[in-house]
Amino acid sequence: AEAVDLLESFAPDGVILDLMLPKIKGVDLLKTMKATPGFDRKPVLVLSNAYHTSMIESAKREGADAILVKSASSPAMVSEHIGVLLAHARPPCPVNDGPIQTALPPDEHD
Fold this sequence. Notes:
Helix content: 25-40%
Number of strands: 3
Strand content: 5-15%
Distance between the termini: 40 Å
Largest sheet: 3 strands, parallel
Shape: globular
Number of helices: 4
Strand order of the largest sheet: 1-2-3
Order of helices and strands: HEHEHEH
């Protein structure tokens, strides 16, 4: 519940989840997230070195949208999956005629 509370405070567009967490099973967190209104439709990319087929199958059953094994996934592959999942999670951008702009906090070392 603490992890879901934390996620709700950030309101992310999607979640990257490891199955091997120190205090809770990642599959249990996934199940809780998918049962929580507002998170039931958020995409979840499982990125883990979990090697047991049963863990992977459990993640699929509990609603993982994509599953990648860390040691077998290049950064480009991970980035591509994140892009695809987020593209389906967000409504279309009404204006796509310019570069993407971000607001970054000022560098504290300036």
